[in-house]
Amino acid sequence: MDRLSTLLQHFSLHASTFHQGGLCGTTSLYGQHNVGHAHLLRSGRLALRGKRGQLIELTEPSLILAVRPQEHQLSASEADEAELVCATLQFDGGANNPLTLALPDFIIKPLRELQGLESTLDWLFEEAFGDECGRDVILNRLFELMMIQLLRHLLANRSIASGMMAGLANAQLSRALVAIHNEPQQNWSVAELADRAGMSRASFAAHFRETVGATPADYLANWRISLTQKRLREGRPIALIADEVGYESPSALARTFRRKVGASPREWLQQNTA
Description:
With about 270 residues, this protein is an alpha+beta fold. It folds into two domains: about 150 residues, Regulatory protein AraC (Jelly Rolls); about 110 residues, Homeodomain-like (Arc Repressor Mutant, subunit A), CATH 1.10.10.60. It has a five-stranded antiparallel β-sheet, with helices on one face. Strands 2-7-4-5 form a four-stranded antiparallel β-sheet, with no helix packed on it. β4 and β5 form a beta hairpin. It is globular, with a radius of gyration of 20 Å.
């Protein structure tokens, strides 16, 4: 059972490397342009300050990840000898897609704790501080590969306590979530999802809500609306989308869309493409 591929196919990642080398002074990154950021500290020391002023000092090779737009500052003095590789991250479906919303504002981890990413990180640093042709394209792909491996790592280590990622890390709930992700057009009942999870209906419903933070029916509706938003951005007509995500008519989809989003599909699209 593949817990990530459908998510990544719908909400695929595009990385763009914008810095490789030393840092001396303060660099401010703003939560604009619908992008997140990934920073890899190769060596030296670095200070991270978040939007609320909290200060975190990094003294060993580390990852700083903000998958959604987050205002933050990176600071280092000449004596800190900080060497960094940085990239912007942009997801199909916008910054507030189900995958990014399931992750915390910041993930900050020493690289030594990221088991399974060692060879990719070594390759990424080798490319970043080398001068081979095609370097920029390779770096972008390596950041994207690193992100996929990081998601695997988070699932394997149950690093996120609640939400979709916590559900996917659970051996039983993940089977129901993958079914919803793979077949959103199905009219899934709680009993059918409980059967996929190998649990009783009552136990499944309670455990799902406690872990994921939504009822199975709400999660299914939210997933369908997220797919609808992505496909609206791509220019697909609402009549085709309704059939693809499991609604008997465009009007039924529009009613659920307004209830969940607070605007009609047309209004939402106008607001998000202006």
